[in-house]
Amino acid sequence: MTDAIKIDVWSDIACPWCYIGKRNLETGLAAAAADDDAPQVEVTYHSFELSPDTPVDFEGGEADYLATHKGITPAQASQMLERVTGVAADAGLEYRFDLLKHTNTVKAHELLHFAKANGMQLPLAERLMSAYFTEGRHLGEDDELVALAAEVGLDAHAARTALEQHTYLDDVRADEEQARAYGINGVPFFVIDGKYGVSGAQPADAFAQVVRQVWAEHADDGDDEAVA
User: Fold this and answer.
1) Which residues contact 90 (CB under 8 A, 6 or more apart)?
2) Residues 6 or more apart whose Cβ sits within 8 Å of residue 170
3) 125 vs 33, 102, 223, CA distance in Å?
4) Are 111 and 43 a contacting pair, CB within 8 Å?
5) Nearest by Cα to 22 from 40, 38, 46
6) Mean per-residue pLDDT for 73-80?
7) What span, in angstroms and rounded, lies between the C-alpha atoms of 51 and 140?
8) How confident is the model over 122-152, as pLDDT tens digits?
9) DSSP character string of 69-98
10) 158-176, pLDDT tens digit by residue?
11) In the beta sheet, which residues pair with residue 45?
């Protein structure tokens, strides 16, 4: 039996291109899944904080954040947000930067590791990104994070305990250390089978193409082993 393709994704829940990349990856995988010899894929998300110095309660909107951190004018920031909103819409996502509450994301990453330990990482990653970019939920607050964890079926008490005790903070730091080892300095970043790197929110077709190519390599490796 051919081994599944492993896709490791470094992302931040506060990264607009990460949610777009996530959706495009899913669309590409769905297209490849319709093949007669459909690739088997395992996706794992890893922590990357784009702005670890951001306060939990950031004063101002997303345009203010961009203007402050990127050294651009408010008008340029608004143009950037308009552009990314259009790209998100093409991916089927309705971004609401007018509602968005910019915050520190380390606890959201801790919660994702808690979800991973309980077999629910993918549903929670989707729920957190949707809550952040389309609903204006405050993902720096424990109460909000626990509520979202419960929505996807995780135990609320256990989730709160994990956040209060920082049970998974070391796992967050290990992900970030691995990112540095790989030379990743921007997200989203996709590592396929530990040997191919794909940077940025690529189109769905690009993801479909790469998993088909890698799946064919897996099949060739299996044939070689069979002959040996």
Assistant:
1) none
2) none
3) 21, 17, 36
4) no
5) 46
6) 92
7) 13
8) 999 999 999 999 999 999 999 999 999 999 9
9) HHT--HHHHHHHHHHHHHHHHHTT----TT
10) 999 999 999 999 999 999 9
11) 9
Helix (H, G, I), strand (E, B) or coil at 6: strand
Nearest to 183 by CA among 67, 10, 37, 3: 10
Task: Return the CA Rg of the chain.
Answer: 18
Tokens of 114: 């808690």
Residue 78 burial class via C-beta count within 10 angstroms: exposed 0-12, middle 13-18, buried 19 and up: middle
Between the alpha carbon of residue 141 and those of residues 50, 92, 147, 225, the distances in Å are 18, 27, 10, 51
Structure tokens at 86: 């259009």
CA distances from 165 to 140, 144, 153, 158, 200 (A): 15, 17, 21, 10, 33
**What gap in Å lies between CA 37 and CA 39, rounded to an integer?**
6
Query: Would you state the pLDDT for residue 224?
Result: 54
Tallying the residues shown for the chain, one arrives at 228
Of residues 36, 35, 32, the one with CA closest to residue 210: 32
pLDDT in tens, 101-124: 999 999 999 999 999 999 999 999
Choose among 119, 164, 167, 118: nearest CA to 142.
Answer: 164
| Other Cβ atoms closer than 10 A to 222 | 13
